[in-house]
Amino acid sequence: MIYKHYFLSLTIRTFLLLVCLVLIAYGITQNNVYIISIGSLLGIIFLYNFYHFITKRFREMDDFFEAVKYRDFSRWYTEDRGTPDIQKLYRGFNLVNKTIKEINNERQAQFLYLQKILEMVDVGIIAYNTETGEVLWTNSFFLDLLDFPNFKNISFVQKRKPKAYDELFETYHPNVDSTLLKMGEEEVKVLISDTIFDVDQTSFKLIMIQNIDETLNRNESDAWKKLLSVMTHEIMNSIAPISSLAETMRTSIEEAQNKPGQNKLDIEDLEIGIESIYKRSEGLMKFAKTYRTLNKISHVNKTAVKANDLFASIRSLIQPTLENKDIRLTFKVHEKDLSILVDTYLIEQVLINIILNAIDATLDLENPHINIIAQRTNRKETLIRIIDNGKGIPEEIIETVFVPFYTTKQQGSGIGLSLCKQIMMLHQGKIAIKSEQGVGTEVQLLFQE
């Protein structure tokens, strides 16, 4: 519709110019100065109007493109003035400006989000122009690690810490490398990686640096705190009754020695007390042995073993435990010749531990069963699944079942699943647990090729 209006206006103006030319030509043939003057005057007026009609639209577009050139999208064009085609043009300009402003606002918001996220990570990040050295962006962790104020050019680092400058900005680290950086009076072990990227034919370098000394120290400190807390709790549980019994026995012996007539020494009580101290001491020794067991496994001796042979060995080991227990235990291998590269002794220990847990979970249940399945995944990895229909694990404790010495069993040591996880890690494998109370539990052992 707007195009038709513009075309009609252009046609009318062209027609009027032709009329003026015809009128001038007619005046010339009639040698009538009056007609020639009127035709010339009208022709000049119509020609000016025609020129103004055409150039006005080009001026508006030229003005808009000039604003685009300088990225000025703040102008608002009045949409209710001028001819319908001019109004349509203004509406188009306003729509373009509005769209670009919305895009810029979204990009600005995304940039701010990214900045906030990068400020929160414990990794130093800096990006700079490789030609001029001008810093594009850096986070506070990078500045804190180098102990620098905010700087605009990497030459600032070169003047104050040339060795750090050479390692960070002159040495290329396509892979993650560990190195020592001197920060003040001490050397800090860090991980460095960097990459080069181009933006609008300008080359930039992005460097990431992480203080692994601080991370390792923090993780080591947390691990020691957890270990000492667990060990203190277990040791105190054994020492407290030993101390109490020893104090009671010492008091009884002193009273019998000081006043033998009034206080007779009860030998039976002493024997009971000594027996209790012995049992508690044995428990403490067992705790120390289980901790040593958890700590001593450091390597594996892998050999190729068929899943059927592994399962046959497990069945013979578990069978005595299932006597007088109405629990159905089944083994299934999806591929007849499926083999696994493992340390047979250690993986047997893992499977036995998990199956014994499944047996405990299915006791006193109706139609209890445990299924052990070996199969290949889509990624050609070997997966062993131990599935039971037992009581399940409460959701609030399922995340803690791999914590050393954590147990919900009265006779448990809390080492079983921790040991299983360590063995799987030594095999570069994974162990995962899915459980639902009242439905059952599935333990997955994943072995990578």
From TrEMBL:
<feature type="transmembrane region" description="Helical">
    <location>
        <begin position="7"/>
        <end position="28"/>
    </location>
</feature>
<dbReference type="GO" id="GO:0005524">
    <property type="term" value="F:ATP binding"/>
</dbReference>
<keyword id="KW-0547">Nucleotide-binding</keyword>
<keyword id="KW-0472">Membrane</keyword>
<keyword id="KW-1133">Transmembrane helix</keyword>
<keyword id="KW-0597">Phosphoprotein</keyword>
<dbReference type="InterPro" id="IPR050398">
    <property type="entry name" value="HssS/ArlS-like"/>
</dbReference>
<dbReference type="InterPro" id="IPR005467">
    <property type="entry name" value="His_kinase_dom"/>
</dbReference>
<keyword id="KW-0902">Two-component regulatory system</keyword>
<keyword id="KW-0808">Transferase</keyword>
<dbReference type="Pfam" id="PF02518">
    <property type="entry name" value="HATPase_c"/>
</dbReference>
<keyword id="KW-0418">Kinase</keyword>
<feature type="domain" description="Histidine kinase">
    <location>
        <begin position="230"/>
        <end position="449"/>
    </location>
</feature>
<dbReference type="InterPro" id="IPR036890">
    <property type="entry name" value="HATPase_C_sf"/>
</dbReference>
<protein>
    <recommendedName>
        <fullName>histidine kinase</fullName>
        <ecNumber>2.7.13.3</ecNumber>
    </recommendedName>
</protein>
<keyword id="KW-0067">ATP-binding</keyword>
<dbReference type="InterPro" id="IPR004358">
    <property type="entry name" value="Sig_transdc_His_kin-like_C"/>
</dbReference>
<keyword id="KW-0812">Transmembrane</keyword>
<feature type="transmembrane region" description="Helical">
    <location>
        <begin position="34"/>
        <end position="51"/>
    </location>
</feature>
<dbReference type="InterPro" id="IPR003594">
    <property type="entry name" value="HATPase_dom"/>
</dbReference>
<keyword id="KW-1003">Cell membrane</keyword>
